[in-house]
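Posted in: Structural Biology > Protein-Ligand Complexes

Title: Requesting predicted complex, protoporphyrin IX containing FE in pocket

I'd be grateful if someone could produce the 3D structure tokens for the following input. Sequence and ligand are given below.
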Amino acid sequence: MWFELMTVTDDRFAKMKPYNAGFARKIPAGALPPGPRWPSLVQSMLLMRFRHQFIPAMHRRYGDVFTIRVVPKASPMVLFTRPEHAKEIFAGDPEVFHAGKGNAILGPIMGEHSLLLQDAAEHRRARKLLMPAFNGASLRRYQSVVTGLAKEEVARWAPGRPFRSLDRMNALTLEVILQVVFGVTDEARLARLRPLVNRTVDINPVVLLGWGYPFLQRFGPWRATVDNQRALDEVMYAEIGERRAAGDLHERTDVLSQLLAVGDGDDGLSDTELRDQLVTLLLAGHETTATALAWSLYELGRDPALLNRAQRAADEGDDAYLEAVMKEAMRLHPVIPMVLRHLMEPATIGGWDLPRGTNVGPSIIISHSREDNFEDAEAFRPDRFLEGHVEPNTWIPFGGGVRRCIGAGFSLMEGVAVLREVLAAYDVRLPDGARDKPKVRNITSVPRRGARIVVHPR
Ligand code: HEM
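-- Reply #1 --
Done. Output follows.
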């Protein structure tokens, strides 16, 4: 592809002409912040393929607030990079700062009721019904199942043989979703679900094309995607139906049972709503957590002293340190590059008067790499999260405000449980020369070479 042929250097971006080059010194009132004026298709490609070079280059060239234009219709996306900007956006009126619209592309798979796709009153209602399943008490109840699954996974690793930790973490976090979120424990049903779920989470550009142009769904790979989705829905509805009929909901410790339990009254979640939320949790919670874990293992594998410190934490039950490892991995290697809100009314952010229809959001990549937010920002230093120096709205891997990731606590709980099991059993090292860097995979950024590690029993 032509854009793959471009050897991206930061300087090249910086030298290209700005979007409003003609009046770069004096920006007229009401104009958007500066940005490149290349075709929106080019900017979209750069954002999709080379965001880890593109966004920092735009920041260097245009400063703390800049505009990029993306397809369709060259829609403006204004990115903010300072904590006070993030604070303004996260605190914005949810009636004005919509998040659901930007996720509409996920509609065909997640379903119209998905928490990620809703806004305003509908979002408030769904969020209220889902919240109890993600509060501290619920998370503590999930912990032992997560630990059991992590133990089983880790016991299967072959010592001395390098492997892609991302693949193993993906398999593990998927199992966690099936058993801890869906609450499926019946082996026959699990065996039926695994391949269906695996195909569902494999959202590539070809699949996306089929969602954008539904007529394609009669053909080849797109037809297979639709068939797979139908088969998945069938199993999910069967599970939801059986669970509704089960008399032991209150004794069960999984997310679906909790969601059914809060829905005892009239305002509960319908079967379709439950299906949509479960698929949302599957897609939002699986690869994200796996990626953060893979980067954690990679960073520990690079530094024997850090590994030693983390192993001591695992032995002594010092969960705070293990959580700091996960947090620092998410800081240095953001899984999601930015969060966006769509302005339903004009709004002022960072002193910029922005028109209705603008997409705005804090850049997680820049926020996490600013030296004024994180001293020695290039270094992997979990201790920064224990020393109490992380200022509000600087560490924002989970977004913020009323849309802050509902699974933030879940993913940290899961991360700590998994790290504990790995570190109790093994020394972790990088195979010779196994340096890694981020690669864009659909919406998330993952380690290009899968964060390869090698383990040896302790
Ligand atoms: C390292 C792991 C994770 C990362 C980095 C992550 C990141 C994010 C981000 C950036 C958002 C958007 C927030 C915003 O717009 O302000 C989000 C939303 C969401 N996440 Fe996560 N997430 C992770 C794990 C999970 C897990 C484990 C689950 C569920 C089991 C989950 C479920 C969701 C849902 C349902 C939303 C939509 C919330 C709403 O719109 O109200 N995520 N996540």
